[in-house]
Amino acid sequence: MRLSGLHLLLTYQCNFECDHCFAWGSPWQSGTMTLRDVRRILGQAKDLGTVEWVYFEGGEPFLYYATLLKGVQEAAQMDFQVGVVTNSYWATDEDDALACLEPFSGLVQDLSISSDLYHYSQRLSQQAEHASIAADRLGIPIGVISIAQAEATDAEAAVGQLPIGESDVMYRGRAVEKLVPGAQRKSWEEFKECPHEDFREPGRLHVDPFGNLHICQGICVGNLFDTPLGDICETYDPESHPIIGPLLEGGPVELVQRYELPHEATYADACHLCYDAREALRPRFPEALTPDQMYGVM
Ligand SMILES: C[S@@+](CC[C@H](N)C(=O)[O-])C[C@H]1O[C@@H](n2cnc3c(N)ncnc32)[C@H](O)[C@@H]1O
Ligand code: SF4
Which site from 4, 137, 232, 239 is most exposed, i.e. has the minimal number of CB atoms within 10 Å? Predict the structure, then answer.
């Protein structure tokens, strides 16, 4: 596995509880990186020698402003390209947004702001507008990530990193509980591949406050607080992973068949079938399907 991006989930906590959130972000969540954790992770990313981009996201990274800022400063000093993904709740007005973003000027190469009808009552929120104006004034490159409403049929499915612009909602995490009841469904047998992740060469991974390395939210390939990132990448064997192996062979359908899991007749999308199967498999594969936070256990 050759990693070019490492995304730090700085915290599972969030000031919002969006219905679609695949990370179950919430004020009631626990798990936040310390500066020591951030430094340890950045050091391992540097040692790997292939990581170009480091992202700070979550949860909502701006909730831990001092840790975020110091982490960004140190990542930039280490010559990483730096990105931050935020709901921009802090951009109450233009001057406030400017004050908040000023220390990041010259350090951040991609500020991704999420704005859509899950986060706010308008697709482009006032906060996103204020943040965009402030970022433009500071010369911070900015883009808006927008997730389509469940009933929209023309949004693109995201492959790998979420793109700037509009993409489809994925029925994982809280989306399963909150959005599946209103979703259109297809026969379970249609979901014979994962449309979103390249499991052989993912390019980027997410690391959470417990050191878990996620290839998709809640599917882990190791823990970098136990094993160095370099060793995890070197020994990564997707075919022999208990969850990724079946997913590569035949998608979520194979996961269900391989482990003889009960299933419903229809599902909203591949992620929905996969997430349900994984919930059932957690007691069997606790290290691969972790932590509780990604499965809504608070
Ligand atoms: C989990 S949030 C964390 C950062 C920050 N709190 C935010 O909302 O931008 C990162 C991105 O994931 C997107 N996201 C969350 N759940 C999703 C889902 N089920 N399908 C597609 N995108 C999702 C959010 O809309 C957001 O753009
Ligand atoms: S999508 Fe972002 S803003 Fe919404 S609950 Fe999840 S982490 Fe929080």
Answer: 239
